[in-house]
Amino acid sequence: MNQVRAKGGMLLGALVSSALAIGTLGEAPAANASCFSAFGIGNGGGCTSNLTSFAIAIGTGASADAASGFFSSAISFGNNTASATTLSFFSFATAVGDGARASTLPGLLNIAWQQGPGSSAAMGALNFAIGMLMGAGGVQSTGAAGVGNIALQIGPGTMTNIGSLNLTLAGASGGNGSKGTSAGGFGNLALNIGDAGTTLTQGFLSSTTNVLGASTVIAQGILTAAGNFLGNGNHVTSAGPYPNTTLSLAFNFFGNNNSVTAGWGPFAVGGAISQNLISVTQSLPGININGVTAGGAAAIGSGKKAAPPKASGVGADTTATARSMDAVSRGNGHQRSTTTSPASDGSGKKAAGSARTRTSGKKSAD
């Protein structure tokens, strides 16, 4: 059942991601150099609006579509830019810079902002999707769907934020756009700093962090975390059979080509520090760092100071036995002293001798 739920969540995320991509990467309508349309007036030339919206497009091939947005706006600045609000209420889509595209899909109080080549899209309620690409290298795509999500990406890469109250942040100065940052669920964090690497957070109140490393970092479950700092080729996961992993942590610091896994948990911690080409796994409660374990049932048992009950019992029995034997020996000694005393033996012998003397005397007299 858990595997079915996990696959269902991944499928839903894929569908939403596809919807965000389609909403931002579709063909833009024919446009003139610049246009302006407000409250349904001035439609044409690439700008459309309705009675409650406005659209502005400035630049060769720029377009802005707010025809199906209510109390919303679509703004485009730059050549071949496109912005759109589709079945949106109180939402804003802004595309700035050549080749920028931004759109708000069905929802309420959403903001989509794209600066530079790339696309940003928001769907749902109170979502912010912000993408910034300051160079011509690489590709960028940023999307947020659900309620109260924030997706901010600077530099090339792909970002997907689906669920509620999630935060995804990514920053890079270069790269080819292969970097991925994703979060799905409730109250999750995905942080990816650098030109490469992948972070994926799925579950509840969990987090992933990748800083300056071309590594894969995954956290799935409840209150789980995984991180990589200054390391390439690492696979760091805090996950078990989703969503059973709870209160677990996996990390890699200053190492390359390591595999670190923590979970199910709870309180399972696995880590690698300044190591290369090692594998660390901690599934049950306990700590495993660089292959050295601590905690858990075995460690707790060995850490206690033992006073074996059997040994103390034997000692008590031995002491009691010694005391009783001593008492018996003392008793026997008293008995022997009263019956076999040298003094008593001497007096007895003397008495016997005197008795024999008397008897012999009597016989002589007779």
Summarize the structure.
With 366 residues, the protein is α/β, with parallel strands linked by helices. It has helices spanning 2-25, 296-303, 309-339, 342-365; strands spanning 34-38, 47-48, 54-58, 63-70, 73-77, 82-89, 92-96, 100-108, 111-115, 118-125, 128-132, 140-147, 150-154, 157-164, 167-171, 180-186, 189-193, 198-204, 207-211, 216-222, 225-229, 235-238, 248-253, 259-262, 268-273, 279-282, 286-289, 292-294. Mean pLDDT is 81; it is low at 1-12, 297-322 and 324-366.
**Which regions contain 5 or more consecutive residues with pLDDT less than 50?**
1-12, 297-322, 324-366
Residue share in helix: 10-25%
Number of strands: 28
Mind describing the biggest β-sheet?
Answer: 15 strands, mixed
What count of helical segments does DSSP give?
4
Strand order of the largest sheet: 1-3-5-7-9-11-13-15-17-19-21-23-25-27-28
Structural class assignment = alpha/beta
**Rounded average pLDDT:** 81
Tell me the distance between the termini: 127 Å
Radius of gyration: 43 Å
